[in-house]
Amino acid sequence: MTGIMASRLKLVLVASGLTALLQPAFAEPPRAVVELFTSQGCSNCPPADALLVEYSQKPDIVALSFPVNYWDYLGWKDTLAHAEFTHRQKDYAHARSDRQVFTPQMIVNGKKSCIGSDRAQIEKAIQTTAKGRSTLPVDIALTEQNGMIIVSITEIAEVAHREAEVWVLPVLRSQTVPIERGENKGRTVTYANVVRGLKRIGEWHGGSARFELPAEAARSGADGYVVLLQAEEDDKPSVILGAAKSAGL
Predict the structure, then answer these.
(1) Which pTM value belongs to this model?
(2) So what's the pLDDT on residue 75?
């Protein structure tokens, strides 16, 4: 290979690498966000955890595990649980006015509560909350450049909620936990897309918007991150209008 040809090849590879770096996580918005509230101390949770692993492998689904801590009193402390996730689950219940808090519970698009292991119920909830759309109504594109994450928001369909908050969630892609005590003693459970925190980075008021934050802050030591655009009602989480996930999730 001549020096000129090698130089051209290097330029092509560099250009291709930059293009890949700047590509959004989704070519189009996902069709749903599913949030599983689960616990290592819950004997009914492993089938739901396995189902969430399946959903995490679908490119058009944002699947998240939220380990809760209210079963810790049984004697086995959930090693991934956080009180903030329990608070989020209870806020959802108050927002729906049904006060139903249980594990495994799946919340679909911020609105519908389902049994976390009931695939048919979850699929029906996805269709119901989509309201005839094939994707969420607001597009979120993610790019990374010079150590910064750029979150670009574009409204692609009319939405009832014109006010929403932008959240970044650090996520562990997969965690396998051997459970030594409690109802699941002796089992080894794999959890997909385990959320490690909730960080509010701004407000959205309809139309197009742009937000930036350091990539290190978004990951916070996790494998990747998810961005949610979520409306609120009476200071409680409501419908999810848009979502995106970083590469590899």
Answers:
(1) 0.89
(2) 73
